[in-house]
Write a structure and sequence with these properties.
It comes from Kribbella steppae. This protein is of the alpha+beta class. The protein has 12 helices and 11 strands.
């Protein structure tokens, strides 16, 4: 039986003290699996890696956003001031304020933004939850279509049905399970291969298509889709045509300009291994850049000095 494999080693002072296991898949432009390890054909939750598909479902139903605000609509944002300003701008387009959001109150996702927020005297709020851009766009889509606002997160709401169709269309498979994501919106189970297939489709989308609008917004404004200092923003800035989105539980999906897709999930959900594994996959595919090299190891410290790293498991990516 196929099972997750070792993707990364935890090496301290030359001693391997642990491993991160998981699964990875690379799909061809036609959607077929090119390379894989672990479990890639069974249902999994993409978590926030599904946000580009959610944005596509909204665009198909009249959402008018582009550029920075469309990137924010597909974001797991850090809670920086420009993110909060953007969320308020989207809400204002719907003639709504922050009270309409159904995100759970939270602190900003990024440490520096959280610290600044707390120093300013704030506690957890709905707008600082990392999914507030998506939720503001959901509310705007509902207003445009005359759909109810109070229950926009329920799976049978017209908005969520439209999003489900977009997920199934781009993944090339049916949703197999519906659950509740951290923000309260539905999360839809597809396979890891389906997630990769979707990102390859977005990355290679022809100009003028709705998929290209999403991809172009992310690539033009990667800090709006994540944050100023986030690793996925750095990767999109570095590699021409690359389009990516991370998700909770150490899910990561990338689309390449030639239509190939990549998706991975680290089984234990540890964020520190996520970028390391993606860097190893990109190197295996022949991509080269100093940013990829930097992300291919996560440093470990002892006594204030670097003594090791989380690094790719050699035999998996040889």
């Amino acid at each position: 039986m196929t099972e997750p494999v070792i993707l990364a080693d935890v090496v301290r002072s030359g001693f391997v003290e642990g491993h991160h296991r998981g699964s990875v898949v690379v799909t061809n432009p036609d959607g077929a699996v090119e390379w894989s390890v672990g479990v890639v054909d069974q249902p999994m939750f993409p978590r926030s890696s599904n946000k580009p598909m959610q944005a596509l479902g909204m665009l198909r139903n009249g959402l008018t956003l582009d550029g920075k605000l469309l990137s924010l609509a597909g974001a797991s944002h850090s809670g920086e001031q420009f993110h909060l300003d953007g969320v308020r701008e989207i809400l204002a387009m719907a003639d709504l304020d922050e009270s309409a959001l159904r995100t759970p109150p939270a602190y900003p996702l990024e440490d520096a933004a959280r610290d600044a927020w707390v120093r300013a005297g704030h506690g957890p709020e709905r707008i600082t939850m990392n999914c507030s851009g998506k939720h503001a766009a959901m509310l705007l889509t509902c207003v445009i279509n005359g759909w109810p606002l109070d229950d926009y997160r329920t799976p049978d709401h017209p908005l969520q049905q439209a999003i489900r169709t977009a997920v199934e269309d781009t993944a090339g498979e049916k949703v197999s399970y519906v659950a509740v994501d951290g923000c309260g919106a539905p999360i839809l189970a597809i396979s890891l291969a389906g997630l990769a297939r979707s990102f390859g489709l977005f990355a290679a989308a022809a100009p003028g298509t709705l998929e290209a609008r999403v991809k172009d917004a992310f690539r033009a404004y990667p800090e709006y889709a994540s944050g100023s200092t986030r690793d996925e923003a750095a990767l999109m800035r570095a590699i021409p045509g690359l389009f990516c989105k991370v998700g909770a539980e150490s899910v990561y999906a990338v689309g390449l300009e030639d239509g190939r897709g990549i998706a991975l999930k680290v089984e234990d959900g540890t964020p520190r291994a996520r970028a390391v594994v993606m860097a190893a996959v990109l190197q295996k595919l022949g991509l080269e850049h100093e940013v990829i090299d930097q992300q291919s190891r996560f440093p470990l410290y002892g006594g204030g000095v670097e003594v090791g790293a989380v690094q790719p498991h050699p035999s998996t990516f040889s």
